[in-house]
Amino acid sequence: MSEHTMRAVTIDGFGGPEVLTAGRVARPEPLPTEVLVRVHAAGINPVDWKTRAGQGMAGLQTLPLILGWDVSGVVEEVGFGVTTLAPGDEVYAMPWFPRPAGGYAEFVTAPSRHFARKPASLGHAEAAALPLAALTAWQALVDTAGVQAGQRVLVHAAAGGVGHLAVQFAKHLGAEVVATASAPRHAWLKELGADEMIDYTRQRFEDVTGGIDVVIDLVGSQDDTAARSVSVTRPGGLVVSIPGGVPERLSLLAGPAGVRTSPFLVEPDSPALATIAGLVDAGAVRVEVERTFALEQAAEAHRLGEGNRTRGKLVLTVTG
């Protein structure tokens, strides 16, 4: 095959998983300050299938589109001015978000400082599962909420990609962690550091917990989860509402209760990725990959992910 093309999964129009098409497209070239990375694995996130369906970040994309923001791979080439990376370096990243990054492909280009060296203890499939989910959890807990030791942190949807990392980061920060998940996930989440488990399929969390300082809400308006979180949050506490911003009902209830709210959107952050890699290599944090798929199986992976029953992350293996 020509060195000027690459394998990729593209969409020509928004819709169901069937719009994901494997083929060959032009290979990108790095501009000054950018690197060309040969992608070994690409993580899959809910924003991927929401965007594919015309939701999520769809309004910021241009068709045809290569989905995917999570990548792990090896630097193939560096553009003029790059001094922090060199060909052969193993890196991982969430480049460009929310602009298109083109992760479901053999190569991506992005500014060198969107990348960090991948955790040395992980293979590419596990490393590719980290960036978007780990940065979401880290930035929400550290930068937005400023979680302190001794605080009580409630993580909704704790068994998911972001949730299982948020549990570990909150515990690392010295917090007491309350987690909502179905009962089969409880033992695993306790291994990751959860102190108090709530089976959301059998209990309403507001009936069994309280005194929460920070809520990491990964559910949002579904089942009124965001608004219901106000009743378990201390005055002065914070509800970080991640999917879709702060719902109107949350805003209406939070003010009179003295509870703060914050919308949230993750950003590329190579210093945080470097910190997270250090925690992983030290054994303080681990990432769960439920299943890997070949690049050409992207549609199958999306169908599984949209069922919202995944423990941890799904990953596409691309090279190697």
From TrEMBL:
Residue ranges occupied by any Enoyl reductase (ER) domain in the UniProt entry: 15-316
Q: Is Oxidoreductase set as a keyword in this record?
A: yes
Record key words, sorted: Oxidoreductase
Q: Spell out the molecular function terms from Gene Ontology.
A: oxidoreductase activity; zinc ion binding
Top-rank taxon of the source lineage equals Bacteria
Query: Which InterPro entries would you find in this protein's record?
Result: ADH-like_N, ER, GroES-like_sf, NAD(P)-bd_dom_sf, Quin_OxRdtase/zeta-crystal_CS, YIM1/Zinc_Alcohol_DH_Fams
UniProt-listed SMART domains: PKS_ER
Q: Does the keyword Oxidoreductase apply?
A: yes
This chain's protein is named: NADPH:quinone reductase
